[in-house]
Specification:
With 282 residues, the protein is of the alpha/beta class. 41% of the residues lie in helices and 17% in strands. Helix 1 packs parallel to helix 10 and helix 6 crosses helix 10. The N and C termini lie far apart (51 Å). It binds NADP nicotinamide-adenine-dinucleotide phosphate (NAP). NADP nicotinamide-adenine-dinucleotide phosphate binds next to helix 10.
């Protein structure tokens, strides 16, 4: 059996180039506004990276950076203004927010048709009901694109997802169920995790712990999607999966980095363009 390493970077660049070609043809360019609160280092790096990628494809991107003492009412007012601003197509609020701001209230305040992350309850609900949301969370839709790009069969297959976060596990569960997978979602309270993962045709790990998954967790021929982005004790970026240990047992595996990560950013650009298209068709 040979193991195929899924090249997320290649497919992300392919999608980004396609987006650029489409955006080049538009007279009025799509616009994404990113709200950043406070001075968290990692958040600033993520936001800079998103802005850089937007500019590369010709999407206008504005970062509104607020002091960490901004209060919830002020932030809600700003979102209201952005919702009403016809020049703004997509809004992203970088998480985490300071403790005095309720993130659920902020997500709910964003107009569903400008919700580039696909986190608004309207869009999450539509996805769960297998209806058509305005947007779908970026990491799950990036994973689906990769599975399709490699012709990995989803229909009828047992997909085990480890992790039930609102940004990865839950929307991924809906998306794969809508694509006719038999989906099991595991989490920190799951009993007999290894027994369940050993029945997976496709195992998707979104736990956030280096080397959490090794060859004892999987059957032969499994497809492994590693969502984790962690740092090991040498400060090296790792996924959740012990890549070398598991490699010979897999049919497909995503590396970290250059696996799921680049697809997430490609889907953010794709969502921005989709929202622009929806708003301009009305
Ligand atoms: P999260 O909100 O911290 O969720 C982690 C999930 O793992 C939770 O559902 C938790 O269960 C579960 N878990 C923790 N320990 C477990 C255990 N021992 N056994 C089984 N399940 C366990 O994390 P997240 O935001 O989804 O992110 C997960 C990882 O993906 C992180 O490394 C993050 O950096 C990465 N990530 C990558 C991308 C990308 O683009 N590649 C995007 C987003 C996130 P409970 O619910 O019971 O607590």
């Amino acid at each position: 059996m040979t193991t195929t390493i899924i090249d997320g970077l290649y497919y992300a660049n392919k999608i980004i180039n396609e987006i650029k070609t489409k955006v080049d043809k538009l007279k009025i360019k799509p616009k994404l506004v990113v709200i950043l609160v406070g001075n968290d280092n990692a958040s600033q790096i993520y936001v800079n990276n998103k802005q850089k990628r937007c500019l590369e494809v010709g999407i206008m991107s504005e970062v509104l950076h607020f002091d960490e003492n901004i209060n919830q009412t002020e932030l809600l007012d700003i979102i209201k203004q952005l919702n009403e601003d016809t020049e703004v197509n997509a809004i992203l609020v970088q998480m985490p927010l300071p403790k005095h701001i309720n993130p659920d209230k902020i997500v709910e305040a964003i107009s569903p048709v400008k919700d580039v992350d696909g986190f608004h309850p309207y869009n999450v609900g539509k996805l769960a009901l297998n209806m058509t949301p305005y947007s779908i969370a970026c990491t799950p839709s990036g994973i689906l694109k990769l599975l399709n790009a490699y012709n990995i069969k989803i229909n009828g297959k047992h997909v085990v997802i480890i992790g039930r976060s609102n940004i990865v596990g839950r929307p991924l569960m809906s998306l794969l169920l809508n694509n006719n997978a038999t989906v099991t979602v595991c989490h920190s309270k799951t009993e007999n995790l290894k027994e369940i993962t050993n029945t997976a045709d496709i195992l998707i790990s979104a736990v956030g712990k280096s080397n959490f998954i090794n060859s004892a967790f999987v059957k032969h021929n499994v497809c492994i999607i590693d969502v984790g982005i962690n740092r090991d004790k040498n400060n090296k970026i790792t996924g959740d999966v012990d890549f070398n240990d598991i490699f010979d047992k897999c049919s497909f595996i995503t590396p970290v980095p250059k696996g799921v990560g680049p697809m997430t950013i490609a889907m953010l650009l794709q969502n921005t363009l989709n929202l622009y298209d929806i708003q301009n068709k009305k």
